[in-house]
């Protein structure tokens, strides 16, 4: 009986091992296919670039655009999130971010017309915090690229997501000061969505705080969200920082944000992402509902 039990255990271990290594092999093949598709996307510049307006909630004018790069939907990358999640797991973060930066600036310039009202607007570029720390990343290259297109560094805002945590704040602050000395500005994205928000804001002293859409959704009905936004707004006003509310979709959300002094806003209710530079517009309020999506 004991021998039978040992035999069953050995057989079970053997088949478990086979399954384990087979799963690894399959995962490796899938990742290889994803890597090939990523390489193909970069080589063919097949990302689609969109510009979403950011509005002054007081006057209604468009102060800038966030530039969004989205991959084509495919079996390997059915969503934009799956695409960027994969890049974060590879050693291609730096090279891909540089590619996106160059593509974004070039396509922004190509979207400008001779008489456009958007020529002096701010440009918000999403960037992984660790890229700025990479010794291969030279801010002078960005300045040179901007000069080629007649764009000032003062127009460029590096948008750092709060979800991608900074670990060495002292070192990162020094790096950001170097970029600021050249005219670039900093925005902290997704503020209020994680545990690291307050520390990030205190150490990095961004020029813009972008409130996560989870704080904005139905804010007119939620006292907890209201208190959090009020706290972040007080901090911003005392720190000469501007607050941008993301994900504005409902008229009631907009009215609340305007009444409470939030500086700027972004969302489908103010302007959807477009492949060309289309300024946003504050809707007439009160109204039943803004166009959603």
UniProtKB/TrEMBL annotation:
Pfam (any one): EAL
Lineage: Bacteria, Bacillati, Bacillota, Bacilli, Bacillales
Domain called EAL: residue spans: 31-287
GO MF annotations in UniProt: cyclic-guanylate-specific phosphodiesterase activity
Protein name: EAL domain-containing protein
SMART domains cross-referenced by the UniProt entry: EAL
């Amino acid at each position: 009986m004991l021998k039978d039990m040992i035999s069953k255990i050995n057989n079970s271990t053997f088949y478990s091992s086979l399954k384990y290594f087979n799963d690894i092999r399959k995962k490796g093949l899938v990742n290889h296919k994803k890597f090939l598709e990523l390489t193909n996307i970069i080589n063919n510049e097949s990302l689609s670039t969109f510009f979403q307006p950011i509005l002054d909630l007081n006057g209604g004018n468009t102060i800038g655009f966030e530039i969004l790069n989205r991959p084509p939907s495919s079996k390997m990358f059915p969503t934009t999130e799956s695409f960027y999640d994969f890049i974060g797991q590879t050693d291609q973060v730096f090279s891909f971010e540089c590619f996106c930066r160059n593509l974004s600036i070039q396509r922004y310039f190509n979207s400008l017309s001779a008489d456009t009202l958007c020529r002096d607007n701010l440009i918000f570029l999403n960037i992984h915090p660790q890229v700025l720390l990479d010794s291969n990343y030279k801010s002078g290259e960005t300045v040179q690229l901007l000069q080629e297109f007649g764009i000032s560094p003062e127009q460029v805002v590096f948008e750092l997501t709060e979800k991608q945590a900074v670990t060495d704040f002292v070192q990162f602050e020094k790096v950001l000061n170097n970029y600021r000395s050249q005219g670039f500005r900093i925005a902290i994205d997704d503020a209020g969505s994680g545990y690291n928000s307050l520390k990030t804001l205190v150490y990095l002293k961004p020029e813009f705080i972008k409130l996560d859409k989870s704080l904005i959704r139905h804010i007119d009905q939620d006292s907890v969200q209201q208190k959090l936004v009020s706290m972040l707004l007080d901090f911003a006003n005392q720190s000469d920082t501007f607050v941008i509310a993301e994900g504005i979709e409902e008229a009631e959300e907009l009215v609340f944000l305007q009444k409470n002094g939030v500086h700027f806003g972004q969302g489908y209710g103010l302007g959807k992402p477009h492949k060309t530079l289309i300024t946003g517009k504050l809707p007439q309020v009160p109204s039943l509902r803004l166009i959603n999506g």
